[in-house]
Design a protein that fits this description.
Number of strands: 0
Largest sheet: none
Mean pLDDT: 95
Oligomer: single chain
Shape: globular
Helix content: over 70%
Structural class: mainly alpha
Distance between the termini: 30 Å
Length: about 60
């Protein structure tokens, strides 16, 4: 199911490592495991992208 959400987690982990992935999970309230089980919605994907962008900006 949540293919876009999982991809966001993958990108954050590739660029910021485990710490970035954990921060994404903490700030979004969604774990990677849960992201695989829930449906991608426009609102949720946008929120995750916004959080991921701020994490990647902070770590660059």
């Amino acid at each position: 199911m949540g293919e876009k959400l999982v991809r966001i987690f993958e990108i954050v982990q590739e660029q910021s490592g485990l710490r970035g992935r954990m921060e994404l999970a903490t700030r979004s309230g969604i774990s990677l495991n849960r992201a695989t089980q829930i449906k991608d919605t426009e609102e949720l994907v946008k929120r995750m992208k916004d959080i991921a962008s701020s994490i990647l900006e902070k770590n660059s």
